[in-house]
Amino acid sequence: xxxxxxxxxxxxxxxxxxxxxxxxxxxxxxxxxxxxxxxxxxxxxxxxxxxxxxxxxxxxxxxxxxxxxxxxxxxxxxxxxxxxxxxxxxxxxxxxxxxxxxxxxxxxxxxxxxxxxxxxxxxxxxxxxxxxxxxxxxxxxxxxxxxxxxxxxxxxxxxxxxxxxxxxxxxxxxxxxxxxxxxxxxxxxxxxxxxxxxxxxxxxxxxxxxx
Length: 211
Hints:
This protein is mainly beta. The chain folds into 2 domains: 11-147, Electron Transport, Fmn-binding Protein, Chain A (Pnp Oxidase, Chain A, Roll); 167-211, Single Sheet (Rubrerythrin, domain 2), CATH 2.20.28. 11% of the residues lie in helices and 35% in strands. The protein has 3 helices and 11 strands; from the N terminus they run E-E-E-E-H-E-H-E-E-E-E-H-E-E. The protein has helices at 51-59, 73-80, 145-150, and strands spanning 14-20, 23-29, 32-37, 40-47, 61-66, 95-98, 101-104, 109-120, 124-136, 173-175, 207-209. The strands form 3 sheets. A 7-stranded antiparallel sheet has the order 2-1-5-8-9-4-3. The longest helix has 9 residues, at 51-59. The chain is globular. The two termini are 28 Å apart. The relative contact order is 0.18. Mean pLDDT is 86; it is low at 157-165.
């Protein structure tokens, strides 16, 4: 099976947020779609290993936030490569309560949803949510997974449905946190000590050279 065929399916890059006993939590989701228009319903797929999955199941509510191509890439790194169970992802991210759910600043739009049904698969839960509120917060082109992968050179977390093992890139420096491969014009060794990964914000010390 040629797994590259999956790249031709349409995927976006979204943030899915919820509450954990009053604490905002969230993760990156690639699979979200509108199911019906009346009543408006949205489906989102979350890995069983994502802490946000548990929080959505416990509260019965979630928000889907659409990211634009010009968003801060570290939003993806912060929400996509760390767990809300151990990390306060909203601690370094300005946010507001919109539609009774936490929404980070810098997203293009949001949909606040109440869970009305769900389906379990071997690895993911598909939550079906009735849209209670929605708004457009900024202009910009919605980011696709293809744009994130090809233009931003971003990698996908293991828990994501779009994850595929990356080919090795011998002699290049790779972020141990998110898998970003540095390919800048300046030799990696000459980067300043305070340089950080443009995707997840990990420090230079978290990069290793592939043999």
